[in-house]
Structures are given as structure tokens and as C-alpha cells.
């Protein structure tokens, strides 16, 4: 067990302010979604509003995933310990991914389930995007304190390490949707890679499992394949 | 807009409307958003005639969308980059060098290249390989008339086109991170180039082309994906071998030489079965993409007997 869960045992005074900050994170975190939908409804999302809306929601999902992954390295590098806010960040990531998916299914494809299924089966970028979302579902479902207790913190930790897989999949999903090699998706992809590599180094010696290493290799492969 | 006659679309639709159709339609935000100046002040409106080859019966994409949302990687990879940074390019003077297998190789001033050929308005659907589309009233001349002027030799089988390379004025060509190899190169088989639908455009919506749309002269081939429509042309070359076109070089598995619009031949990473029409807004339905972008009646014979899946 890591310091993460132990650190939630704080004096009463601090718990209250944690709740307030957590609430603030949810409020601030939902601003991009509300703002984007507002722009969409008032026809201010540019010439191709669907693309802008989808990109924006997906990008915020990826951003929140990466922010969540950056919390531990931030602490280890001597920064503040923000672990108690990670759940809020994670749930925001999940919410953005869910809305992103809902917009694709409902607004973009118009609930054309045949076309959507064909996309999932035939389009690697959609397959990978769906895969990333599928990973986030059990993580969101087990995010409560009660679920941590029920699963036991070790099993819970192991389960929630899957978020690295979701991060890699989401980054690849982004890289695969664009033409050529614009800088932005690459920056996100490299950030995800670095965070995953960090986990690999941390786990090295402690466990012989090579899952995360395969992940990194996998992501590099997808990028190389596109070259 | 349904017009069975010869009145140009720009006369039927009041300028204030087509300049900003989406806001006119929704009635929202028109007063809240300050519009950028769109029409170049110094440019004279073009004199042009109508053409029976124009596509009728579909609403035109607003001038604003047509001039502010497109791909022109020489100015950056973002869709807003061409409109934001295109103005840095100096398009006068402009010469086009014509060489290769032609009887009259020469360097033409762009005005001389098309001098004496009547300008026509050609309303065409424009389908981007990325899955969106527009309807644009181009002004231009049939490429075949320019080809007659430069007289291809019998051995010429392809026409190759090149875009300007001028990093000082094209910011997408500067820096370490270059998305494409320059110059941008496109090409057509000679029979495609001589087809009456193929034009060299010098304007849209009755005005000279803005830099973001490929001023001063660009190619428009309405039955092919938009990337075939090479912009700001500085060289036209008649050749015997199939030109190594830019996107086909960048990723040969994803982009072919032909690039005919075809809902049955998907991009390896996404479906080409449907498209979003720019201007339809957030609640607009995807439209089915048409074979040869709806121009099959005119151009399908160019490809008879050809495997369109293999020759994508």
C-alpha cells in the first residue's frame, strides 16, 4: 500500500476544506463542457461545430486523465500532495469521455447503431477510443470509499492502474484521428508515454510483470505504423 | 437555392446574406460577433459568365465558412491557420512556369496564362478527404483551354502542378516541424485534366481568390477529394510518368494518386460513406457521400474498367 490512502486520514478541519476544494474542482472542471455546449448552441463553434465539440470534449477527457496521472510524480518531485483530489480529477475525466462518446453516438452519428458498430469493428481509432472508455467505466464505478474498502486497497490499486492503459489508448486515439503529424496530438502522446515510463521504472524490481512495458511498446508501434 | 436560369448565385443572394449565411439562418449572435473584413478592398470584382456545368439546387456554403475553414498546410496545419496567416503572402507579381512535354514552354504572368479565356462561375460540391463538404461558387477557366494554349506534346500523359515555396511568407514552411515535404505537388492524368469539369480557379463568390483559398490561381477537380485541388500554383509541367503527389508520398497507404470521392472506398482510418456539410450546424444530419462526389454521370467513363479500390 502506498501513501495515497493513508494520507486521507487528516484532522477534521482539513477534511472540510478538502471537501470545499473538491467541490470547486468539480465546478471548475465542468466549465469547459458548459462553455463548449453554450458556444455550440449559439452557433459560435466555427464552420464545423461537430468536429470542434467532439475534439474539445475528448481533449478535456485526455487532459484530466493526464492531470490525474501527474499527481503522484508531482508529489515525488517535491510538489504538493494532491492525492486526495485525484478522485475528482478522475471522475471529471470519465464524465468528459462519456459526454464525448454520447456526442459521437447521438449528435454526430444520429444513433445510427449499424454505422457505429461498423466503426467500432473497422476503425482502429474508434476501436481504441471505445477501449479507453471501457476501461474508465469500472474505474469510475469503483471510485467511492465504500468500493475501496470492499475491494481491499491492494486489489483496488491494481485495478486502478488500468488508467495508464486508458491514457495510452486515448493518446493513440487522438494521434490516429488526424492527418499527417500536427504537433498537438504528439505532445499529448509523448506526455502519456512519459507518465507510463515513470510507472514502469517505479514498478521495476518490485514486480516482474511487463504489462506497462508492453503498453509503451504498443504505443510506439502504433505511431511507427502510421509513419 | 433553386435556379434554373442564368442569374449568378451572388446576385440572387444579397451579399450581406451570403457573407454570413449561418448567422442569418439562426438569427443568433449576428450583432454579438464582430465580423472580420472579408472582401479585399482593392480587388475589383470579376467579370464572369454562367455555366451549365454548375451544380444547382444546393445552398451555397457561406463566404465566411468558405474563406475561414480549410486546409492549406503551407500556412499551418490548423483549419483556421490559412485565414489567419495567409495574408502574409504576396501574390503580385505572380508567374507560372510551364514546362516539360509542351510545344510552348514559357514562364507566364498569371494574367497572361488565362488571358482571353472567358471566366465562368462554377458551383461545385467540395468534399474533403476528412469527411466534410462545402458548396462553393468558384470563378475560373477550364483547364483544357489553358492546356490548348501551352500545347502538350503527344508523349505527355500527365499534368503535374506545384505550389509556391516561400517560407518567409508561408509560416507552415518554416521551423523544424514540417508536416509535408515541399513543394506541394499534385497531378492529373491528361484526360482528367482535359475534362470540362476541371478548372483553374481565380476567384470565388465573384471576387478574386483570397490567399487562404489558393490565390492567385488554383486547381478545382470537383469529383476528387479536396487535397487534389492544389493552391497557389507556380508550375505546370506535362510529363510522361505519373507524378509523385504530396499526400501519396506522405502516406501511400492512405492517399492515392486518383483520390476520387467514393463512399465505397474508405480511408484506412475512417469511413468515407458519409459527410458533414459545413453550415448544417450541430444538429444537421450527416449526408451520404456520392460516388465521384455526385459527378459520376460526367466522369465515370474516365475510369471504366478500372478497379477503384486498388486505384484509390
List keywords for this structure.
heterodimer, A: 227 residues, mainly alpha, 11 helices, 79% helix, globular, B: 312 residues, alpha+beta, Sulfite Oxidase, Chain A, domain 2, 7-stranded mixed sheet, 5-stranded mixed sheet, 10 helices, 16% helix, disordered N terminus
3D architecture notes:
The complex is a heterodimer of chains A (227) and B (312). By secondary structure, chain A is an all-alpha fold. Chain A has one domain. Chain A contains eleven helices and no strands. Chain A has helices at 3-6, 12-41, 49-76, 86-108, 113-122, 124-141, 145-151, 153-160, 163-177, 183-203, 211-226. Residues 1-6 of chain A have low confidence and may be disordered. Chain B has 312 residues and is of the alpha+beta class. Chain B has one domain (9-303): Oxidoreductase, molybdopterin-binding domain (Sulfite Oxidase, Chain A, domain 2, Alpha-Beta Complex), CATH 3.90.420.10. In chain B, the strands form two sheets. In chain B, strands 3, 4, 7, 8, 9, 11 and 12 form a seven-stranded mixed β-sheet that branches. The chains are: A mainly alpha (227), B alpha+beta (312). The A-B interface holds A 40-51, 53, 107-110, 115, 118-119, 122-125, 176-177, 179-183, 226 and B 22-23, 26, 28-29, 33, 65, 68-69, 71, 73, 77-80, 129-130, 132, 177, 179-180, 250-251, 266, 269-271, 273-274, 276, 278-279, 281-283, 285-286.
Amino acid at each position: 500500500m502506498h501513501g495515497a490512502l493513508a494520507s486521507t486520514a487528516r484532522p477534521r478541519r482539513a477534511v472540510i476544506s478538502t471537501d470545499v476544494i473538491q467541490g470547486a474542482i468539480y465546478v471548475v472542471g465542468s466549465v469547459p463542457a458548459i462553455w463548449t455546449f453554450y458556444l455550440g448552441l449559439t452557433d459560435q463553434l466555427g464552420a464545423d461545430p461537430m468536429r470542434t465539440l467532439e475534439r474539445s470534449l475528448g481533449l478535456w477527457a485526455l487532459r484530466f486523465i493526464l492531470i490525474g496521472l501527474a499527481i503522484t510524480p508531482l508529489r515525488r518531485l517535491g510538489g504538493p500532495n494532491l492525492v486526495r483530489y485525484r478522485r475528482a480529477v478522475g471522475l471529471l475525466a470519465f464524465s468528459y469521455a462519456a459526454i464525448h462518446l454520447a456526442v459521437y453516438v447521438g449528435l454526430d452519428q444520429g444513433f445510427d447503431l449499424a454505422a457505429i458498430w461498423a466503426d467500432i469493428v473497422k476503425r482502429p481509432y474508434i476501436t481504441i477510443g471505445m477501449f479507453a472508455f471501457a476501461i474508465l467505466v469500472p474505474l469510475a464505478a469503483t471510485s467511492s470509499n465504500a468500493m475501496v474498502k470492499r475491494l481491499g486497497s491492494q486489489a483496488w490499486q491494481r485495478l486502478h492502474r488500468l488508467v495508464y492503459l486508458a491514457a495510452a489508448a486515448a493518446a493513440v486515439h487522438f494521434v490516429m484521428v488526424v492527418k499527417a503529424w500536427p504537433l498537438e496530438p504528439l505532445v499529448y502522446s509523448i506526455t502519456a508515454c512519459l507518465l507510463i515510463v515513470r510507472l514502469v521504472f517505479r514498478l521495476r524490481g518490485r514486480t516482474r510483470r511487463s504489462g506497462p512495458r508492453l503498453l509503451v511498446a504498443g504505443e510506439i508501434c502504433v505511431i511507427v505504423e502510421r509513419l | 437555392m433553386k435556379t434554373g436560369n442564368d442569374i449568378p448565385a451572388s446576385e440572387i443572394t444579397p451579399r450581406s446574406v451570403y457573407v454570413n449565411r449561418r448567422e442569418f439562418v439562426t438569427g443568433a449572435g449576428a450583432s454579438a460577433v464582430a465580423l472580420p473584413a472579408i472582401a479585399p478592398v482593392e480587388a475589383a470584382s470579376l467579370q464572369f459568365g454562367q455555366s451549365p456545368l454548375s451544380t444547382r439546387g444546393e445552398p451555397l456554403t457561406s463566404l465566411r465558412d468558405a474563406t475561414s475553414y480549410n486546409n492549406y498546410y503551407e500556412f499551418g496545419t490548423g483549419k483556421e491557420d490559412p485565414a489567419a496567416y495567409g495574408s502574409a503572402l504576396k501574390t503580385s507579381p505572380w508567374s507560372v512556369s510551364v514546362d516539360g512535354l509542351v510545344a510552348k514552354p514559357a514562364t507566364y504572368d498569371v494574367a497572361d496564362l488565362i488571358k482571353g479565356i472567358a471566366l465562368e462561375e462554377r458551383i461545385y460540391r467540395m468534399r474533403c478527404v476528412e469527411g466534410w463538404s462545402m458548396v462553393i461558387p468558384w470563378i475560373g477557366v477550364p483547364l483544357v483551354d489553358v492546356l490548348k494554349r501551352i500545347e502538350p506534346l503527344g508523349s505527355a500523359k500527365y499534368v503535374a502542378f506545384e505550389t509556391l515555396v516561400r517560407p518567409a511568407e508561408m509560416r507552415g514552411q518554416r521551423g523544424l516541424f514540417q508536416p509535408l515535404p515541399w513543394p506541394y505537388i499534385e497531378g492529373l492524368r491528361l484526360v482528367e485534366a482535359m475534362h470540362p469539369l476541371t478548372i483553374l480557379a481565380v476567384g470565388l463568390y465573384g471576387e478574386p481568390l483570397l490567399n487562404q483559398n489558393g490565390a492567385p490561381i488554383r486547381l478545382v477537380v470537383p469529383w476528387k477529394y479536396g487535397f487534389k485541388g492544389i493552391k497557389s500554383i507556380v508550375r505546370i509541367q506535362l510529363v510522361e510518368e505519373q507524378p509523385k503527389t504530396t499526400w501519396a508520398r506522405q502516406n501511400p497507404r492512405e492517399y492515392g494518386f486518383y483520390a476520387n470521392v467514393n463512399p465505397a472506398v474508405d480511408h484506412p482510418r475512417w469511413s468515407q460513406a458519409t459527410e458533414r456539410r459545413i453550415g448544417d450546424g450541430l444538429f444537421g444530419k450527416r449526408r451520404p457521400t456520392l460516388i465521384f462526389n455526385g459527378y459520376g454521370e460526367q466522369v465515370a467513363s474516365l475510369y471504366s474498367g478500372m478497379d477503384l479500390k486498388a486505384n484509390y
